[in-house]
Amino acid sequence: MSFLNTIRGLGRGPKKNKKDLDSTNVFYQHPNGSGSPVRRSQSPTKLSPNKQQRINQVYNKQASPTRRGRSHANGDGSTRLSPRKEAARLVAPVTTINAPQDLPLFLQEPFVKTSLVKGSFKTIVQLPKYVDYGEWIALNIFEMFNNLNQFYEVFAEYMTPEAYPSMNAGPTTNYLWVDSSGQSINLPAVQYINYVLTWISNKLNDQSVFPTKSGGAFPQNFMKDCKNITRQMFRIFAHIYYNHFEKIVHLSLEAHWNSFFSHFISFVKEFKLIDKNELEPLLPLIESFEEQGKII
């Protein structure tokens, strides 16, 4: 299911909305033409050509997002980077919240309980019978990336370097970028996210990583790439929750956003794609969704 029909329909009349929904692209189509979502047959959503070109020019000079750091204050005030293995890096803990007025907006009622779907996404994310394991992982990542990319475009114009000079997820978590020379640098959120989106898009369009042709085999490091991708996607979720949730509420999209995030977390939990310590910035929200039965 798509969580972005409301976004696609903003500013359009009912007839156009219906037409848009009826003509939604099928990203995954079975070779027999049945429409069964088993194979990927279309490139993921991309940024505009001019924007993509500018990002690629800078991206090629900067770094690969497969190596990233997170700032963590040492006792002497300097910045200590986590170990090279990303999966083993610890996330700085979120500030303890004691009073309701200290809760971020997305943890306050009624927003924390707003959702499009009743029940959990458990049965939706489970591997269907007779479907290839790697293809199912690729299918879900492909579609979720497209949805996240389109959600991000709603807020991109507000993400100026001046307004958001760092890629943060709350007051105690800041994601650093490691450039091609191994130097850890702090980037504005818009630049960090654009690098990530470009990197993921390149991965999804790489036949050696995400094969779409019949008979194509997934590489040995496929799951490692999937974990890197979902980890970076989570960081975008976290940044938007902490910095742009009021815009989501203003557009009345909190039900769509919460449902999309619940779907994403259900998927990564089902296939163990993200370590729990990486989820720390949004762990209170995830635990709330678990208590509500949205995530199992």
Jot down its keywords.
single chain, 296 residues, mainly alpha, Butyryl-CoA Dehydrogenase, subunit A, domain 3, 4-stranded antiparallel sheet, 9 helices, 4 strands, 42% helix, globular, disordered N terminus
CATH superfamily: MOB kinase activator
Number of helices: 9
Indicate the low-confidence ranges by residue numbers. 1-39, 54-100
The CATH architecture assignment turns out to be Up-down Bundle
Q: Which structural class do the helices and strands define?
A: mainly alpha
| Percent strand | under 5%
Number of strands: 4
Domains (count): 1
Helix content: 40-55%
How is this structure best summarized?
This protein has a single domain, classed as Butyryl-CoA Dehydrogenase, subunit A, domain 3, CATH 1.20.140.
What does this structure look like?
Helices cover 42% and strands 4% of the residues. It is globular and about 50 Å long. The protein has helices at 5-8, 14-22, 49-62, 122-125, 133-155, 189-204, 222-250, 254-270, 283-291; strands spanning 68-70, 167-168, 174-178, 184-185. The chain has a single domain (5-291), classed as MOB kinase activator (Butyryl-CoA Dehydrogenase, subunit A, domain 3, Up-down Bundle). By secondary structure, it is mainly α. Strands 1, 2, 3 and 4 form a four-stranded antiparallel sheet that branches. The longest helix is centred in the C-terminal third of the chain and has 29 residues, at 222-250.
